Amino acid sequence: MGWLFLKVLLVGVSFSGFLYPLVDFCFSGKARGQKPNFVIILADDIGWGDLGANWAETKDTTNLDKMASEGMRFVDFHAAASTCSPSRASLLTGRLGLRNGVTHNFAVTSVGGLPLNETTLAEVLQQAGYVTGMIGFDYYFGIPYSHDMGCTDTPGYNHPPCPACPQGDGPSRNLQRDCYTDVALPLYENLNIVEQPVNLSSLAQKYAEKATQFIQQASTSGRPFLLYVGLAHMHVPLPVTQLPAAPWGRRLYGAGLREMDGLVGQIKDKVDRTAKENTFLWFTGDNGPWAQKCELAGSVGPFTGLWQTRQGGSPAKQTTWEGGHRVPALAYWPGRVPVNVTSTALLSVLDIFPTVVALAQASLPQGRRFDGVDVSEVLFGRSQPGHRVLFHPNSGAAGEFGALQTVRLERYKAFYITGGARACDGSTGPEMQHKFPLIFNLEDDIAEAMPLERGGTEYRAVLPKVRKVLADILQDIANDSISRADYTLDPSVTPCCNPYHIACRCQAT
């Protein structure tokens, strides 16, 4: 029962936290060092420009910038989707949403999740002798979905709710606080709710304690380990320990970014103290920033999607413009990954699954096809190109969910459907179908401002190649073993809340 519940929970929406088995770490196992350990950190809603090593204007990621100088930084690295649930499902399976069934976000009342017949990275590594911090579900620690979901004052709240609320007749009327940092989400440990509402200001430290405890215990056990940490820090409401003097501005986002960076630093420090030479640490994001949130959203850096902004709407999260899925990414493994290297290889979150499986000397599951590839040669500095082709599925703003509406072919990017998500000014860009796709040369136009002239020599040379690779992938998917996710909604699964509690105080009548 617990295994089923937590596997459904894993990508039910944008969950935060991490999973690891509740086992006796002191039993004898294979000698440490025979197989590498893996720590995968996925940051929610972080922008490419939020990493100081990527974008000089950013000064809030001291630990991540240090990691970049000590390892490899990827500047053409992409999420597998531009929203939370499908991005995470693809990380866990190495497969696009059209294969694993998760094509768009689940709602807070969804009863489904990642299809049970999909095989996750953690399940493969468990069979290879690993202690895993993901599926297995002997143990879970985290919240079940994003900070702004569930029983909050107003779903979609941008930050810990500071505005005053009408006084009710319940116990909450006597509460005198300058700012509330609680949201009415449950914090799970196994199947037990250990805290509800969750105090966002203390969540980072709890995650740090659980993560470092796991690394220490797993290292002591002598067995290799996999730890997956899903951070929701840059997703609104922003969980900052100390609010800056001007909370409604970039200073609040910067404070949250520094806190997330500090949490990553604590995890890296623990790795360095316990299993430095034999642990591969991979940091990346799940999608681009949520531009609708204005000053509380991250930076896309130079990937401004100018063609779309002229039509209206945002070209960031929930779109297939570069700002929606090009994310910061770092690889750190002393002695194996070269230091202070910037890679321009075209890579994807999809590659994490097959790469980790190969490095763990395990085997890919049979009877299914994968969209990621083993990129260990890139990681070790022996190869540069990465993918020749990537497909960017719609998962938010325009077109059919999961449709492969955008094709990346080397330096070219072709849009068959365009559209903008809701922008800070409230506008949304209209969906446009393109029988002859808009094609951009990203090498010359990273801002996606001006498509190639239709009918021009360069356009006519690229178009047949784009059509062929798209036809090939659609045929491959049609011949594959495809899963179907259950997106059924059931109001009864909405978490209960106390209308007199401060986190739900505006609902009191």
Folded structure, characterized:
By secondary structure, the chain is an alpha/beta fold. The protein has one domain: Alkaline Phosphatase, subunit A (3-Layer(aba) Sandwich), CATH 3.40.720. The chain has 12 helices and 19 strands. The strands form 4 sheets. Strands 1, 2, 3, 5, 6, 8, 9, 11, 12, 13 and 14 form an 11-stranded mixed β-sheet that branches. Strands 16-17-18-19 form a 4-stranded antiparallel β-sheet, covered by helices on one side. α6 runs parallel beside α7. The two termini are 37 Å apart. The N terminus and C terminus are likely disordered.
CATH architecture group name: 3-Layer(aba) Sandwich
Determine the number of helices (DSSP H or I, runs of at least 4 residues): 12
Low-confidence sequence ranges: 1-9, 20-33, 160-178, 502-509
- What assembly state would you assign to the polypeptide chains in this entry? single chain
Task: Please tally the β strands and state the result.
Answer: 19
Topology of this protein?
Blueprint: H1 2-10, E1 16-19, E2 37-43, H2 62-70, E3 72-74, E4 77-78, H3 84-93, H4 97-100, H5 121-127, E5 131-133, E6 140-143, E7 182-183, E8 187-189, E9 192-195, E10 198-199, H6 200-221, E11 225-231, H7 250-274, E12 279-285, H8 306-311, H9 322-325, E13 329-332, E14 341-343, E15 347-348, H10 352-359, H11 376-379, E16 389-392, E17 406-409, E18 412-418, E19 432-441, H12 457-478
Parallel strand pairs: 2-11, 2-12, 3-14, 4-15, 5-11
Antiparallel strand pairs: 1-6, 1-11, 3-13, 6-8, 7-10, 8-9, 12-13, 16-17, 17-18, 18-19
